[in-house]
Amino acid sequence: MVTTSSKVAFIFPGQGSQSPGMGKQIYDNSKAAQRVFEEADEALHFKLSKLCFEGPENELTLTVNAQPAIFAASVACLRAMEEMKGSHVLSLPKYVAGHSLGEYTALVAAGSMEFTDAIKLVRERARLMHSAAAMHPGSMAAILGQHELFAEEICQETGTQIANINTSEQIVISGDKDKIAKAVDLARRRGAKRVIPLDVSGAFHSNLMESAMFGMRSSVASAKISDPQIPVIANTTAKPMSLSADIRSELLGQICRSVRWYPSIQYMINEGTDTFIEIGPGNVLTGLVKRIDNKVNATSVTDMASLEALLV
Question: Could you list the active site residues?
């Protein structure tokens, strides 16, 4: 139950949270959510809504589809919240933040971008990242039970990069497939609790995504982006952004640089945040927040039941 605005943060999921059927129940019960999916279909000139609701899973999982689909489903959840409790819902959070792709949803929530403009940008980002992954095949792996410095040393010795700092002991690395294989072996020998190769289509948040970053320059430069009405915590710095110029730089930088999620959550907690509401498909970020600090409140809004429970 949300009763105060001063200690709340809205957080938004990234790629990997997709699943067939996402957003369908919200769509069936909220006119505001319906409008989001209709706008998405019109903006992208294909039935993204059908792909979200029906799959097939192998098509939905493709980077070029997963990113706009998760983005649309997350915004649909957000708009349903507004519809149920009024536009003042967006005055609740002290901060907003999103994990990688989720940063675009955070920008919409903060009033920095309009949905239609943002989904076109997300689709272009996804297309370019998909293309970069095809041109420069790579992989990723999660190192569990070790700190950031441990992962950094592994990366330095293998030519890989830190892609995500999800918690103090969950670090994801990214890079060339052969180099990731060496990094996995080295991390295991050095005493990592677990090292899990990830089933991903590319080396996201690494220099192998440079072509996507360069390709996004003109689109980001011409996009309608205004100063956010709510501070947005940047993936790459774990600090708040309050100017549109900072946002443009962030949207390019986050393609190749690491998502500093753990420091981002820590920053918000240190600034007084004690409640995190994940809005969109899945509950990955809710789990990460609880592992970062089990004293704060963390909950997810994915359907009407969770939305109604939150806003009673």
Answer: 100, 205
